[in-house]
Design brief:
The complex is a heterodimer of chains A (about 325) and B (about 290). By secondary structure, chain A is mainly alpha-helical.
Chain lengths: ~325, ~290
């Protein structure tokens, strides 16, 4: 199999995390061309100095400060006042906070699988060698670039509002729903639609993964009498599971943090009836519109814990469904 | 269904035709909003909402003319200038700071490198929202609100771990013999970085640059937090002012402005899409 790059296997993230545990980014087996020493250390730190400064002043320091703020009342002007766990107990008692958790969970649970399914389906279509492949690839990727912009959210508002294109389309089928934007039950699906529309980025990653699947496996499966569906479940899916894992991880983490599109599609109100009050919308509202910086910090930490838990569960679950192929190459 | 069975190699015409029809049909669905937007920008506002036709029967350019008046007395070019300043500034910052960091991770053997790399990977998964409040407080105390500094400083301090990671992946793939030879010839790290590694890393640098530009251009939350005077606003914020100002009345102007706001992104995309997509595909995958 010389045409398959020998340097590639699973997605880098896990391999790297594993590599970090084992030996770090360098290769231990290779002797250093130069003896290590103070000079080499100094050079390293000098090259790293932007990152070190950035990490200390923009990440680690703020994290510590934010953790402190989470236990205080703070409005940016008076000194922070220690209140213990009050922010957290307030949060659980707050119906709007609960609503934001509900909206975000729903958005993640509905949006991520549909988006990934669309990405995989189109990637499988494009994995076939056809004329004009790169054109299709680029065209399907385009919404991924536009999708995060205010422009896309504005267009979405225009497409999904009362009597607009989507509503008119529904009317053709005799459903007069009055537009998704104004409907508390439907607006979230307009948002989901906006994220699904941006399937281009995971699609490209799937494509790269599909190219690595050895053809012999399909041939062998076919000889064993496996139909297309069976081949998909027994060959394609296990073979691309590392890529799938990478995409699930990335997309889930992203979905948790949705802000701009929810804010704009609902015209800055996160409404109607708090229907698009995603977690970060409420965090912004509490922190910056209501000057409850302590409360918002506490919210941010819960988000961090939630994302951390989901990441941990995904990493834990990968033992069961992610296959890192050794013999495939 | 699968990457391809031998049938594709034989290129059966009917199969190929079906494939193209399917792919094109999907493409129509996916690109519909974009085409609709282009058409809508040439329609009078009353026809934008409430009409199914893609293109206007009687195209007008009023929507674009109105843009020339600016938004709330701020000329449009001002927003573009601000966005361009931030985007280009971000690109320069990311390319320099992330490549230096990536170089240290891959080519310099210093104490604590593995621990730092693990931390860097950790920040890749960190939700940005944990940082917005403390960072805001900090920049507020430093009296940097309503300047571009809070939006730019992170780019010069390599906090975009994704790009560091992407460049690390790329630099690891470079043949080791090159920099070893250079070292034997007495080159220092700075020389190797600048004369050998940087030129070879062009694809990774270009990918990072494009992504950075587009992210900075599209960014909404950053400007929303840190900019509060309209003459400092970016295109995203200008667009938002448009909505606030006209609610539903001027759909035409809003759509036209949305499209104009996307032009730099689309131009970048068309010019560099090959790099962008390949970079995207390899960033997660190269061992």
């Amino acid at each position: 199999m010389t045409h398959i790059q020998t340097s590639t296997s699973g997605p880098v993230l896990d391999k790297d995390l594993a590599a970090v545990e084992r030996s770090g980014p360098g290769r231990k087996t290779r002797p250093a061309p130069r003896p290590r020493g103070h000079r080499e250390n100094l050079t390293g730190y000098l090259f790293m100095s932007p990152w070190i400064a950035g990490f200390l002043f923009l990440i680690a320091g703020p994290m510590v400060f934010s953790l402190y703020l989470a236990f205080t009342d703070y409005n940016l002007f008076d000194a922070p006042k220690w209140v213990g766990l009050k922010n957290f107990t307030d949060m659980f008692a707050d119906p709007r906070w609960r609503q934001s958790v509900k909206v975000t969970s729903w958005y993640v649970v509905i949006g991520t699988p549909i988006k990934l399914a669309a990405a995989l389906a189109v990637a499988m279509l494009l994995a076939q060698k056809r004329w004009g492949q790169s054109f299709y690839r680029a065209a399907f990727y385009a919404p991924s670039l536009i999708g995060a912009s205010v422009s896309a959210a504005i267009v979405w508002r225009a497409l999904f509002s009362d009597d607009a294109v989507v509503d008119r389309g529904q009317q053709l089928f005799g459903i007069d729903a009055g537009g998704w934007i104004g409907d508390p039950d439907m607006i979230i699906y307009a948002l989901v639609g906006l994220t699904v529309w941006q399937f281009g980025a995971p699609m490209v990653i799937f494509l790269a993964g599909l190219k690595q699947v050895p053809r012999e496996l399909y041939e062998a499966a076919e000889m064993d009498g496996a139909g297309p569906w069976r081949r998909f479940w027994s060959v394609t899916l296990p073979m691309i599971s590392p890529v799938l894992f990478f995409n699930v991880l990335l997309e889930t983490i992203h979905s948790f943090q949705i802000f701009g599109s929810a804010y704009i599609v609902s015209n800055g109100s996160c409404g109607p009836a708090d229907a698009t009050l995603v977690y970060t919308c409420y965090l912004y509202d509490q922190g910056f519109a209501n000057s409850r910086m302590g409360f918002a910090s506490a919210m941010a930490w819960l988000l961090l814990v939630a994302v951390g838990l989901v990441t941990a569960v995904l990493f834990w679950s990968q033992k069961r469904w992610v296959h890192y192929e050794e013999g495939a190459r | 269904m699968t990457p391809m069975d031998t049938t594709a190699v034989r290129r059966r015409l009917p199969g190929s035709l079906a494939w193209h029809i399917g792919a094109l049909a999907l493409l129509v669905v996916v690109l519909y909003p974009v085409v609709w937007t282009i058409g809508a920008s040439f329609k009078p506002s009353e026809d934008i909402v409430g009409a199914l036709n893609l293109f206007p029967t009687d195209p007008i350019t009023d929507n674009y003319h109105r843009l020339a008046d600016g938004i709330a007395d701020i000329p449009i070019w001002k927003f573009f200038l601000n966005s361009a300043y931030i985007s280009v500034g971000s690109v320069i910052g990311v390319v320099i700071s992330c490549s230096l960091t990536a170089y240290a991770f891959t080519k310099v053997r210093f104490a604590g490198r593995n621990a730092m790399f693990a931390i860097m990977i950790g920040t890749l998964l960190l939700p940005y929202h944990v940082l917005i409040i403390p960072q805001y407080v900090m920049f507020q105390k430093l009296e940097l609100i309503n300047t571009f500094t809070p939006l730019l400083i992170g780019k010069y301090l390599a906090t975009d771990a994704f790009f560091v990671f992407l460049m690390v992946q790329f630099m690891r793939g470079l043949p080791k013999e090159l920099d070893e030879a250079a070292r034997l010839d007495g080159c220092g790290h700075l020389r190797i970085y600048w004369s050998i590694v940087m030129p070879l890393c062009r694809p990774a640098l270009i990918t990072s640059a494009i992504f950075t530009f587009i992210q900075a251009w599209n960014d909404f939350m950053g400007p929303l937090l840190y900019l509060n005077e309209p003459d400092k606003y970016t295109v995203s914020m200008g667009l938002r002012m448009f909505i606030d100002q006209d609610a539903v009345a001027d759909y035409g102007g809003m759509i036209a402005m949305s499209l104009v706001a996307l032009l730099p992104v689309l131009a970048f995309f068309l010019a560099f899409q090959r790099y962008l997509i390949d970079g995207m595909a390899t960033s997660g995958l190269k061992g």
